[in-house]
């Protein structure tokens, strides 16, 4: 050994080489034995396993959670629920007919979401005469079992009738100005719904349903209509071909829909959706009407023409069938080319009130 030391001391290069070899050998031994502790994959597995074991221990301490259960027959997805009417649009939005939805399932879903629905109606000037029947029938058939805010736009707050409402419902009176013509009242409702959606509706309700006051609810109208955006098929034109739709055809109107374009003709008497989507719709329609007004033009069917233009380019997520907007007097006048009550109409849910000679202008 002493001889080796003397040899190494006499040969520095050899000594340095052996020293480096010794250090490298020690490093390899440490790396081998320390691999298990330094391996990141093993560390991750241990952390995951530890977390899982903690989760399992906590879960054993929990009590059982009971969720609502509904036992229903298994649906046959390959067989349409109705074969006599279209139940789906070309963009795969459901068309709501009697027999195409399960009310119990939908009610349970919207109850779990704690949904509140706003129903807007304009009772201006002599149209207040229709408000009492509108509200009474809404209490009987509209969104039964759900929270509802009735937003009454009127120029005569003192004449709004008092009603005993179901639990979770309230009437909110919003005073607005009147206009000389009913057309102006109808068109300015887009502006007012837009303004109030931005100011307060988004804080108070989840969905808005916008309806005319000269209606009565005659059967169930529930959460099956709710979606981000919905429109209602106009009874007059559902049984007619597209070329007979009364779209605004003048190119210089903001409501213009060219010949050969269009999906359906929607009524302006019933539409809605989420507060945000209704805000977008009403704001866009109001702005378009203001442009028309500046250009001295009025769309052929006023705000309804602008509604149809909007729904052409912003497809509704649901479409309500004519069951949701029926008119006995209108149907009577159309019997010459419609014949008897179409067999597709299984359940009339909303009726337009019959026109009389003493109707308000």
TrEMBL record:
Co-factor binding details: Binds 1 Mn(2+) ion per subunit.
Alphabetized UniProt keyword annotations: Glycosyltransferase, Manganese, Membrane, Metal-binding, Signal-anchor, Transferase, Transmembrane, Transmembrane helix
Topology of this chain in the membrane: Single-pass type II membrane protein
Pfam families linked: Glyco_transf_6
Single Gene Ontology BP annotation: carbohydrate metabolic process
Residues annotated to bind an alpha-L-fucosyl-(1->2)-beta-D-galactosyl derivative: 234, 304
PANTHER family xrefs: GLYCOSYLTRANSFERASE-RELATED, HISTO-BLOOD GROUP ABO SYSTEM TRANSFERASE
Predominant place of localization: membrane
Amino-acid positions noted as binding UDP-N-acetyl-alpha-D-galactosamine in the UniProt annotation, renumbered to this chain: 122-124, 127, 212-214
GO cellular component: Golgi apparatus; membrane; vesicle
Domain of life: Eukaryota
Lineage summary: Eukaryota, Metazoa, Chordata, Craniata, Vertebrata
Name of the molecule in the record: Histo-blood group ABO system transferase
GO molecular function annotations of the record: glycoprotein-fucosylgalactoside alpha-N-acetylgalactosaminyltransferase activity; metal ion binding
Residues noted as binding Mn(2+) in the record, renumbered to the chain: 212, 214
Matches recorded under Gene3D superfamilies: Spore Coat Polysaccharide Biosynthesis Protein SpsA, Chain A
Record's keyword annotation contains Glycosyltransferase: yes
Location within or outside the cell: Membrane
């Amino acid at each position: 050994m002493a001889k080796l030391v003397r040899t190494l001391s006499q040969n520095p290069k050899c000594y340095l080489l052996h020293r480096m070899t010794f250090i490298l050998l020690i490093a390899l031994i440490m790396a081998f034995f320390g691999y298990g502790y330094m391996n990141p994959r093993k560390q991750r597995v241990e952390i995951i396993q530890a977390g899982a074991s903690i989760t399992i221990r906590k879960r054993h301490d929990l009590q059982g959670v009971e969720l609502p259960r509904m036992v229903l027959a298994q649906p046959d997805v390959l067989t349409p629920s109705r074969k006599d009417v279209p139940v789906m649009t070309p963009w795969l939005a459901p068309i709501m007919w009697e027999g195409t939805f399960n009310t119990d399932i939908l009610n349970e879903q919207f109850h779990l979401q704690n949904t509140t629905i706003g129903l807007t109606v304009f009772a201006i000037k002599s149209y207040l005469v229709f408000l009492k029947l509108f509200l009474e029938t809404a209490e009987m058939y509209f969104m039964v079992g759900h929270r509802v805010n009735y937003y009454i736009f009127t120029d005569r707050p003192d004449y709004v009738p008092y009603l005993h409402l179901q639990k979770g419902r309230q009437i909110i009176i919003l005073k607005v100005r009147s206009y000389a013509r009913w057309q102006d009242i109808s068109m300015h409702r887009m502006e007012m719904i837009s303004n109030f959606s931005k100011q307060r509706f988004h804080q108070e309700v989840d969905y808005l349903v916008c309806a005319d006051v000269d209606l009565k609810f005659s059967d169930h109208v529930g959460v099956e209509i709710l979606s981000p955006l919905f429109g209602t098929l106009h009874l007059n034109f559902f049984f007619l071909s597209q070329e007979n739709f009364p779209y605004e055809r003048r190119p210089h109107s903001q409501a213009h829909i060219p010949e050969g374009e269009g999906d359906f003709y929607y009524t302006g008497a019933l539409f809605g959706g989420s507060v945000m989507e209704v805000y977008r719709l009403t704001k866009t329609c109001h702005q378009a009407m203001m442009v028309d007004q500046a250009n001295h033009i009025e769309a052929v069917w006023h705000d309804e023409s602008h509604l149809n233009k909007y729904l052409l380019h912003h497809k509704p997520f649901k479409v309500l069938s004519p069951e949701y907007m029926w008119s006995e007097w209108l149907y009577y006048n159309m019997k010459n080319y419609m014949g008897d009550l179409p067999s597709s109409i299984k359940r009339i849910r909303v009726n337009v009130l019959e026109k009389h000679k003493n109707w308000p202008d």
